[in-house]
Amino acid sequence: MAPVASFVHHSNTGKVAQGMAFHGVLNVNKPEGWTSHDVVQRLRSGLGIQKVGHAGTLDPHATGVLPVLIGKGTKIAQYLLGWEKEYGAVLQLGQRTDTQDAWGRVLEESPVESVTEDRIRSVFATFQGSIQQVPPMYSAVKIGGQPLYKKARRGETVDRPAKTVVIHELEIQELKVPEVAFRVVCSKGTYVRTLCEDIGNVLQVGGHLKWLQRRRVGPIHVDQALEIESLLGGLEFSQRDGAFLGLDQALGGFPAIEVDRDDARKVLHGNAISWDRVVNSYLEPKALPSGEHMVRVKQKDGQLLALGRGPVFQTGRGGAVLAIETVLA
């Protein structure tokens, strides 16, 4: 049976505490107007848990899935950032803004009467697959050691190198010019507001993002997301309902191995173990990628111990090893 995580109020302190110790990823529905940091701070203080973080920032005006990392879940953020993401969005044609969304200053307006539905659908089709995006000035991307948004707030504009992102799916769901509602599934690092501006520029009328909801991050869906106030009110949930992912479940994209007691002791101290023994203990042999890769290291009873990387060839080790990157037990 999947473990249940619950929160109960302490009547003498007014604080909220864990009904049991748990570590992993909470599926939280970020409200409009909140920053991702606001959510973390509210849950940290409201639940009385010190180790709280998040994986994948959402803009303040966007809503939807925010993976909130609890306890040892804060150790795995870097491994979750690669999850693909799905959004629902609305493109507003005919206006270009300095923030590429509806909350910025309008820089340019153009009539849209000449833009046909067929032309819009044709342009959308060209944005599927691998594309180049220039990160927006109002973003956390760092140039010269400083986030771009700080430069933008001072009225500065700097050259930003384009990067490759992947648009796996791009589907128009409702088209009522000047608005286009669409669904997009994309790789990490994709800016949906930049996608909106780029489509508007190709259509030669400009455009910006009017509305955005993140519907999915990896295996986490907005339909199962928890409202912040429900969490603070003592909600109970389990790993089966998609509201909470334990560490092993969250890292399920990596193949797993089992180790014996002697190797388990080494792993818990962060020490490398023989790659030959690792190769013979894969639980999911069909899932093995080629070359160096990450694996979940587990005890015979199924407990997750760590994340390791291998095969790593170390001088003087007498062969390849599995290097332990993050101890999680």
Short description:
This protein has 329 residues and is of the alpha+beta class. The protein has nine helices and 22 strands. It folds into three domains: 4-82 and 219-250, 2-Layer Sandwich (Alpha-Beta Plaits), CATH 3.30.70; 85-215, Pseudouridine synthase (2-Layer Sandwich), CATH 3.30.2350.10; 256-327, PUA domain (Archaeosine Trna-guanine Transglycosylase, Chain: A, domain 4, Roll), CATH 2.30.130.10.
Largest sheet: 10 strands, mixed
Number of helices in the DSSP assignment: 9
From the N-terminal CA to the C-terminal CA, the straight-line distance is 20 Å
**The top level CATH class name of the largest domain:** Alpha Beta
At the fourth level of CATH, the homologous superfamily of the largest domain is: Pseudouridine synthase
- If you average the pLDDT, what whole number results? 88
Global morphology: elongated
List the helices and strands and how they pair.
Blueprint: E1 4-9, E2 16-18, E3 24-30, H1 36-47, E4 52-54, E5 63-70, H2 77-80, E6 85-93, E7 95-97, E8 106-109, H3 117-125, E9 129-133, E10 142-143, E11 146-147, H4 148-153, E12 163-176, E13 179-186, H5 192-202, E14 207-217, E15 220-221, H6 228-232, E16 236-238, E17 244-246, H7 247-250, E18 256-258, H8 261-268, E19 273-274, H9 275-279, E20 293-298, E21 304-313, E22 320-327
Parallel strand pairs: 5-14, 18-20
Antiparallel strand pairs: 1-2, 1-16, 3-5, 3-17, 4-5, 6-13, 6-14, 7-8, 9-12, 10-11, 12-13, 14-15, 19-22, 20-21, 21-22
